[in-house]
Amino acid sequence: VFDHWGLPGTAAERDALWSHAAAHGHRIKLSGRYRVPAEGLGPDPLAALARRVPERLWLWGSDCPFTRHESTEDYARVLADLERLGVDDSVRHAMTRNAEHLYGFEPGPA
Predict the structure, then answer these.
(1) Residue 66 has pLDDT above 90, yes or no
(2) What does each C-alpha distance from 36 to 5, 20, 30, 109 come to in angstroms?
(3) Which CA distances in Å does 62 have to 37, 45, 78?
(4) Contact by Cβ (8 Å): 41, 51
(5) What's residue 82's pLDDT?
(6) Residue 107 preceded by cis peptide, ω within 30
(7) Gap between the terminal Cα atoms of the chain
(8) Measured between alpha carbons, how far is 108 from 7 in angstroms, rounded to an integer?
(9) Phi-psi domain of 37 (left: phi exceeds 0; alpha: psi -120 through 50; beta: other)
(10) Which of 21, 36, 57, 107 could form a disulfide with 26 if both were Cys (CB 3.0 to 4.6 A apart)?
(11) How far apart are CA 40 and CA 38, in angstroms?
């Protein structure tokens, strides 16, 4: 699992890392976007991710307790960030199922 979107520093690093993840079945955890340089994710990171990594490899995490960012980040802000990115119910559902599968939990109700 690559945490924090893989922490790419540039768009080229992002593309290479995400292509590698997709080719080898590694998951990308959509967490701690505030930790990643804007240049690394680009203006529409969700669309860029969708072009390179199948949704079945996406995970979500809050990044709580926001180490070294406690004064500027909280759970509500992270959830609002997902909304701004355009994460809809189908993507949230997929990321939940992906985590259940990864950790061997029984799937929750559909």
Answers:
(1) no
(2) 8, 19, 11, 33
(3) 18, 17, 6
(4) no
(5) 85
(6) no
(7) 25
(8) 30
(9) beta
(10) 21
(11) 5
